[in-house]
Structure formats: C-alpha cells, structure tokens
Amino acid sequence: MTSDVATDQPTRKRAPQGDADSPGDPGTARPEPRGWAWSLARFGYRDRPPTSLRERLVPSYTDNSAYTGGGWLPCILVTLLAGFIRFWNLGKPKAVIFDETYYAKDAWSLLKLGYEGTWPKEANDQILAGQTDTLQTQGSYIVHPPIGKWTIALGEQLFGLTPFGWRFALAVLGTLSVLMLCRIGRRLLRSTLLGCVAGLLMALDGLHFVMSRTSLLDLVLMFWILAAFGALLIDRDDTRALAARMFKDGPDATRAATARFGLRPWRIVAGICLGLACGTKWSGVYVLAALGVLTVLWDAGTRRACGARRPYRATLRHDVLFAFLSTVAVALGIYIWSWTGWFLTDNGYFRHWADDRAGLSPDHVLGIPLPQFGMTWVPAPLRSLWHYHAEMWSFHTGLDSPHPYQSNPWSWLVLGRPVAYYFETVHQGTAGCTEQDCYQTVLGIGTPLLWWTGVVAVGYLLFRWAGRRDWRAGAILCGLAAAYLPWMAYQQRTIFLFYAVAFVPFLCLAVTMMLGALLGPPGATERRRAWGTAGVVAIIALIAWNFLYFYPIFTGETITRSGWLDRMWFSTWI
Fold first, then answer.
1. Which of 202, 239, 450, 475 has the most CB atoms in a 10 Å sphere around its CB?
2. How far is CA 406 from each of CA 212, 415, 499, 529, rounded to the nearest angstrom?
3. What is the domain range of residue 126?
4. What's the burial of 166, exposed, middle or buried (CB within 10 Å: 0-12/13-18/19+)?
5. Backbone angles phi, psi at 406, to 5 degrees
6. Of 123, 146, 161, which residue constitutes the final position of a domain?
7. Could you tell me if 496 and 407 are in contact, meaning their C-beta atoms sit under 8 angstroms apart?
8. What is the pLDDT, as a whole number, of residue 359?
9. Which of 177, 187, 211 is nearest to 58 (CA)?
10. Which residues of the chain are modeled with pLDDT < 50?
11. pLDDT computed for residue 373 by the predictor
C-alpha cells in the first residue's frame, strides 16, 4: 500500500554543552517542542519523499508477489472460501422465496419463448412439485430489462427450474465478485494483503451472501458495476504506464497537453460491463455517468503529472469524446442488444404497439416536446420499445404501495430495516426443533459489525479525499455514491435494503483502506506496527464471528425462537 510517509524515525536536537556553573542541566539533550508534527512523527509520518515521475504514475506494490504467483494464490484461497459457503446447501430452502416468484419464472420464460410469458396463480406450487409446463405464451408486463433474468436462465438451463437451478448463476457471480474485489483491492491499494482483506470482508458480508443465494437481480447489477470499476482501474494503470514510457525524460508541458494515448480497450470493456449493468436494472445509469466522469478526471490527473499546465483543457480536447464513445455509446448499444429476444419474437408485451401509430408515447421527455408526426423513419419495433420504457418509467416513479419490509435509504448504512425473504415456523420434534416453536428464516441484512465499521470508514475516506487529495479514497467514494445516493431522490418510493448490495464492494474497500491506515505506515515503529496489526486482526475476527453468529438466519436453518430473538438486536429487524 502506498503511503505518504518516509522511513526515517523522529530525532531530537541536542542543546549546546555548557559548563558546570551554567544554569539548567548542562550536557543533557533538550528535545524540540512536542507539537502536532512531533506527535505524528512518533508514528512514522513524514513529508512524502521526492519520487520519480514513473513512481508517481505507476506506484510499486508493497509486497513481493513472486512467492504468491502475482498475488493470485491468496486471492484464489479467499475465493474458494467464498464459493464454498455460497454453494453449500444452495437449494435450501426448497421454496420460491420473496421476488424469486418473478425472476425465476421470467428467466425460464426467456429460455422457452425469448420473452416473458405469463403463469397461472398456482405456478409456484406446481414448479416445486416438478411441473414446469404451465407457461403461457401471452406476453407479461415486466418492469426490468432482461440481462439479469438471462443470467438466472443460464443456471436453469443447466439444472432445470429448481431452487438450485435458479440460484446457481447468482452463486457463481457472487463467488467471482469476491475474486474481482481481491484483485481490484490489490491494484487500488498496491497490496496483496489488503486486496485479500477486501475480498474476505465481502465474502463475510451477510447481504452479499444472501443475495448470492437468492434469485434476484441486484447481485447481477453489483457484479457488472464492480467489473466496470475494475476495467477502468486497469485502464488507468495502463494509460499511466504508457505515459511513463512517453515521458521517461521527465515532465514536458507541451507534449503533455497534446499527447494521445491511443486505443483504450479496457475502457471499452468497462462500457460493455456498464451496458450489462443498465440492462439488468436502470439504476446502473447513475453508475455509468459517475464512472464516466471519474475516468475523465483520471486522464486529467495523468496529464497534470506529465506536466500539462491546463490538464482539464487538454483532456477536454483529446480524451472526452473517446471516453464518451467507449463508455456511454458502447453501453447504449449493449443495452439495446439485450432486448434481442423481445425484438425477434411477436408476443412480447407492447411488441407491436407502434405498428399502427406514427408518433411516440409519451410525447415529451423532461418537459421537452417530441415530434408526433414524421417519425415513421424510426422502425416500429424501436418506437414500441420506447413506449414500453415509458410505461416502465411510470411504474418505477409511481411505486409507493406500502410494504412491511420497505426502508428509507437514510437507514441503509446502519441496517435500519432488513428484508425477510423467507420465514417458516416449525414445531418441536420436526426439522431438528428442540423447543416448542422454532423458525426457519432467510434475512437479507448485512453483517452488522462490518457495516457499522463501514460508516466510520466512509468518514475516514472523506477526510483522505478532501483533506489529503487521495485519489484512491475518491475512487471508492465515487463508486459508493453512484450506487447509493441516487436513491435519496426517491423518498416516497417503495424501496428495500437489498438494493444496497450494489455498493457493498465499495463499502468493503472503504473498510480495507481504513484498516490499511490502522496497520501503520512503512516508517512506523515496531510497537506502532504491532498495535496496528493487533487492532486489524481483532476487527476482522469480530466481523467473522458476527457473520457466523447470524449464519443460521442467512441460510434458513432451523433455529429456536429464543436464538432467533437473540439475533433480533433491534425491534425494526422483526
């Protein structure tokens, strides 16, 4: 992990030697005044030493990864742990839980019809009994794009329309996202250890764990957001490495203002990932906008480091257009492509809405009127899709029906109101119940000690970003804010805590960065390092214990009523 410190230790100035008759205590050292700078120096903090342009552009890793295969070995071990606990008893509970009633059946419909068909009211019981042929060809009104449901369909294609089948792909993505976070944390913080800590924290987060074992869309959204962030991080490193080669003789203001960095394949990969995120849920649009701005700011930082006097002007001239095409344009193309099944079939909802119409619906966007005549040059399927999206937008913005598990986004970080995906009462003598009443429940809630530590970590990152101009803190906060803050604009809408899984990776990165600071800078004393290490180990151990403590109510295991009540720490969790 890079640090703003030097490795030398604080020193004290010695006073001039006096004779025996001089006042004071001749021959003893007189320490300099113990101010704030002296206090920081005790812990190894010093001004950043001069570094070369290459080291500023591409900081080195703090560990020798030759013994760990480039850092892959420990990352894979963390991933194997995450995969084991996510796939263990994945088909339990054998039930259609919460919104699986929509997405599991829609995914099967996409496999069979290419669009979302309709099902009879008793379809859930029939499916659990093995009867999967009750799907009807009439198009069903849906309110989310199809990528997440196609993802669920991959597992159903392999294992059938069963609880294990419709949860399989989510467990795969949940496991792979832990691996991605290990590598992203390693690259961002320049430490294999800290990268693995980030991955381990997410592996032990209750909300990520439950969403990895439930057939909902939000974990798919999280996966593609994280993948896009990682692709842009690789693009940043590659671009700065190229700049280091181009400016090996040092900064050059003229060249830095006109340099072109050529093809940026990883930024195109990010655009594809962001398109898949938007094709899962529309909230991916906010992340697309935020990460698009972030990658442009990173380009400006590269030009500034290379000597450009007006880096933002140079970036505007040479980088913004290509960044837009690589992210926004590519994402739009991927999004439209995601509706291929709807385009190629005839019975999808609103599929032929525009066949006998020449205009658009609605007739305005954000108060701007749209032409209603002369639009026949736009293919009818595209106008039908536009109308479908207008109806979906109306549904999302007008959704205010009360729900017992809805929550305000202000309460998410402190886990104010979790979501009970599944709840069954079992009686003594059945399913391992040892009391009069026992419960089997799946509760969608983050690991409390991890999230509450995350609140402190977010405050620390705000200080690092605003007070110390630490770009790593800014990058993490950007991802977290893009996936979280837009929900603040929908105070009256019916929304749920599990939407927050989209920013869980960034919350884990925030905690990891704070733990890295707690470990101490390279120049800290051995005592400081020992205390820092003990603190970090204690925090991780408490988070691991907290995950294990809540594990029975994450997985639907039989738990006594008293044991369940012990885990309901607040009345709002019931």
1. 202
2. 21, 12, 11, 44
3. 99-161
4. buried
5. -70, 160
6. 161
7. yes
8. 63
9. 187
10. 1-30, 366
11. 53
* Separation between Cα atoms, residue 11 and residue 41, nearest integer Å: 9
Residue 288: inside a domain, yes or no?
A: no
Among residues 350, 380, 398, the one where a domain terminates is: 398
Query: What is the C-alpha to C-alpha distance for residues 504 and 225, in angstroms, rounded to an integer?
Result: 11
Does residue 113 lie in a domain region? yes
Residue 104 in any domain: the answer is yes
Helices (H) and strands (E) in the chain, counts: 23, 5
Position 39, amino acid? S
> Mind listing the pLDDT tens digit for each residue in 167-204?
999 999 999 999 999 999 999 999 999 999 999 999 99
pLDDT value of residue 65: 67
Phi-psi region of 437 (alpha: psi -120 to 50; beta: other; left: phi over 0): beta
- pLDDT score for 390: 87
In a domain, 377, yes or no: yes
> What is the value of pTM for the model shown?
0.89
Tokens encoding 233: 């991080």
Cα radius of gyration rounded to whole Å, the chain: 28
Q: Which of 48, 170, 13, 189 is nearest to 100 (CA)?
A: 170
Copy the structure tokens of residue 258: 């006109």
CA distances from 414 to 421, 441, 506, 538, 539 (A): 19, 21, 16, 21, 17
Domain count, the chain: 2
pLDDT in tens, 31-43: 555 666 666 666 6
SS3 content of the chain, % helix, strand, coil (to 5): 60, 5, 35
- Inter-helix orientation angle 100-113/163-189, to 10°: 100
